[in-house]
Design a protein that fits this description.
It contains 14 helices and twelve strands. 51% of the residues are buried. With 364 residues, it is of the alpha/beta class. The chain is globular. The two termini are 31 Å apart. Bound molecules: fructose -6-phosphate. The site of fructose -6-phosphate has 15 residues, from helix 3 and helix 11. One of its GO terms (molecular function) is glutamine-fructose-6-phosphate transaminase (isomerizing) activity.
């Protein structure tokens, strides 16, 4: 049931603080701020390589996780979309953990990739929202997300929960490898536990985003830019907009703009910049200036510090709470979801059942 919401997607966006808290609750011990995973019978400290495979939005969750596995657990990560991975004869060495991320647990390409990895001696980790799904049944390490049923075709709350689980897994692997001290683990847990409140603070800007949607709705093309773990969020923002509003959108790593896409910029191409303040902020601001110098219309999504430094002269700004970098991707997913949602509402498209799309893609 949709309750007071117009669409399932809207309801699911607003459920994120609750379902992320539920999901974190099953991986984090509040009593001593430690991370605990469900039972499994292999040694996480012996994992020498992580291979992440998924499709669509779930793939973008994996892209964020690559930063975390490398940063915390210092383990090399290979990541690919399932439809490419399966057929490129990937090198799968002993001691590899292959991780599959899927809301439905039934996506045909991802399932085929899982079976290929299994046949090639990989330990199989599965992050899935449907615990009875095909992928769940084949897992050595089953890490459920507790998002509840996701009805809207565009994935939102399942994605947020995937990120929560992946952060916990990457940090836990670091603990097992002896690379994260007890103090550092407690700090990671504390930051993760801040996520639900920060998601709520991000959702508080729903009205601002709704009232700027008419600025984006007439566009034919929209660009999204982000750096580091916010780069996959730029890809996710573009995917959400394409899917439900049918506006052509592309996500780029901020620094890649000048290597091509900047040629597209004129005053009719809104550029959505995701940039929490921090060490990379200055660099992103200079990319933003390159856009503005060519007449580009920037929508800056940042925190109060970032907006104060660089908000002037933007087409619009969206203020996010100031958050720890670990949870920034989770929090910055909210404004791009809401923006896609409200633009779709302005355009009057079928938000929950976009044309040509199915909730679960069970053909390769
Ligand atoms: C985008 C979206 C799709 C799915 C993709 C994978 O909003 O919903 O891109 O993320 O089809 O689906 P799952 O996660 O079920 O494997």
């Amino acid at each position: 049931e949709k309750g007071n919401y117009r669409h399932f997607m809207q309801k699911e966006i607003f459920e994120q603080p609750t379902v992320v808290a539920q999901t974190l609750g099953s991986y984090l011990h509040r009593a001593d701020n430690s991370i605990a995973l469900p039972q499994f019978d292999f040694d996480l400290s012996q994992i020498r390589r992580v291979t992440i495979v998924a499709c669509g939005t779930s793939f973008y969750a994996g892209m964020v996780a690559k930063y975390w596995f490398e940063q915390f657990a210092r383990v090399p990560v290979d990541i690919d979309v399932a439809s490419e991975f399966r057929y490129r004869d990937p090198v799968l060495e002993e001691g590899g953990l292959a991780l599959f991320i899927s809301q439905s647990g039934e996506t045909a390409d991802t399932l085929a990739a899982l079976r290929h990895c299994k046949e090639n001696g990989q330990t199989i980790g599965v992050i899935v929202n449907v615990p009875t799904s095909s992928m769940a049944r084949e897992a050595d390490l089953l890490l459920p997300t507790h998002a509840g049923p996701e009805i809207g075709v565009a994935s939102t709350k399942a994605f947020a929960c995937q990120l929560a689980v992946l952060a916990a897994l990457a940090a836990h692997m670091a603990v097992k490898k002896g690379l994260m001290s007890r103090d550092e683990e407690q700090e990671v847990v504390r930051h993760l536990l801040e996520a639900p409140a920060c998601l709520n603070a991000a959702l508080d800007h729903d009205d601002d985003i709704a009232s700027m949607a008419h600025l984006i709705a007439p566009a034919r093309d929209v660009l999204y830019l982000g750096r580091g773990p916010d780069y996959p969020m730029a890809l996710e923002g573009a995917l959400k907009l394409k899917e439900i509003s049918y506006i052509h959108a592309e996500g780029y790593a901020s620094g890649e703009m000048k290597h091509g896409p900047i040629a597209l910029i004129d005053d009719k191409v809104p550029v959505i910049v995701l940039a929490p303040s921090g060490p990379l902020f200055e660099k992103t601001v200079s990319n933003m200036e390159e856009v503005r110098a060519r007449g580009g219309q920037v929508v800056l999504i940042s925190d109060a510090d970032g907006l104060e430094q660089a908000g002037e002269g933007c087409l619009a700004t969206i203020e996010m709470p100031k958050v720890h970098p670990l949870i920034a991707p989770l929090v910055y997913a909210v404004p791009v979801q809401l923006l896609a949602y409200h633009v779709a509402c302005v355009k009057g498209t079928d938000v929950d059942q976009p044309r040509n799309l199915a909730k679960s893609v069970t053909v390769e």
